[in-house]
Amino acid sequence: MAPKTRTALVYAGLLGAGIGAFFVIRHFGRSLIAPIASGQPAQSGSAVPESDNLLVHALIALVVIVLAARICGALFRRMKQPAVIGEMVAGILLGPSLLGRVAPALSAHLFPTLVSPFLSVVSQIGVILFMFLVGVQLDLGLLRNRTRAAVAISHASIVAPFLCGAALALWLYPSFSSRGVSFAEFALFIGVSMSVTAFPVLARILTDRRMHESRIGSIALACAAVDDVTAWCLLAFVVGVARAQPGRIFLTVGLTAAFIILMLTLVRPAALWFVRRESASSSSSQSTMATVCAALLLSALATQRIGIHALFGAFLLGVVIPHDSALAQEIKTKLEDAVVAFLLPVFFVYTGLRTEINLVHGFRDWIACGAIILVASAGKFGGSYVAGRLTGLGGREAASLGLLMNTRGLMELIVLNVGLDLGVLSPTLFAMFVLMALVTTFATTPILQALKTTQSGDA
Is residue 330 assigned to a domain? Predict the structure, then answer.
């Protein structure tokens, strides 16, 4: 049997087995009854400023956010951790989990309730721009030029945690969901939450450790690239299912598929033509950026109106722009610093303002939180490790790859915020998954270093 035919059969079998397993889980979960929804996500601050003082309070909040994020990011860099982890922690510290408890008056003054919608809009714009940048910098050559092993490992690292998360939903749904959410929606979302790998954070870890040009680093980047695209497609599907009325689910899925086809068959050639034209002309860069921004907003608006999420449209538009073009470099140069240094910290802190760790209390809740961390780690690591071994990687290489693929960080927080906004995640479950994102991302670097030290000692 030809290798391509064998690979196609393996993929078809993997996909079929995964879909079949999910329907089995869904069958057992249909009879489960979730509790009645209780309360809204926690928000820090209670003071409501006068309307003419809104700008003053918003500026104060933004100053605190940017400074706290930079300080915590610097501290974590000194601990040889990605700065993004420090920014995530800054958001938790400024929220009701710490500042809201120890200094509620100060918290109310810094983050009054009326400012929350403003921070929400700024944070969403920041994430939309960031996902656009991720798409622009995504090297599709990683998906084409690497071995079939990288693609197989990536798919295994998605299917295994997805099914583990869906199975865990059988236990979580009766205790932590609500009756307004069907088990199928809940299980799908938990599965996607377990499947995410943070491609930008992974790339940063590999670069800091000078592993990005090594064999295992190249395979990890290829796997994460495939993982990123697949996970966002899964998220788009799940959001479509969650938002659509029962009779509109297939319409939403169909429109999403049509949008993807349109972007790849029409917008991508148009983007290539635009890149060539801009390279040959002397038109102003401001006009070019205005055109790109308009296309970005239209793409994000299209997917939002379809019923999935604006993030997916922004990401897909970035993907169709050649990553090695002068336009891509100009976009990165002009947008990256403002997005990473200013807009993303707003997203982290806004997430922290919605996260109340104190909602996780009692033996049952902490057992559930531990189970989420364990299942997420075991699913990602196990799927990557087994697939790596089956495709010819050594034990330590497969273990390193499994650890790297377990990096979640920012991408996980984006998924979790979507789930909270849709009402699929309760505030308590949201807090548990935020803790899981922090633990799995924080653990990557020290465990990888310990594995490398052990390997060097054995040598």
Answer: yes
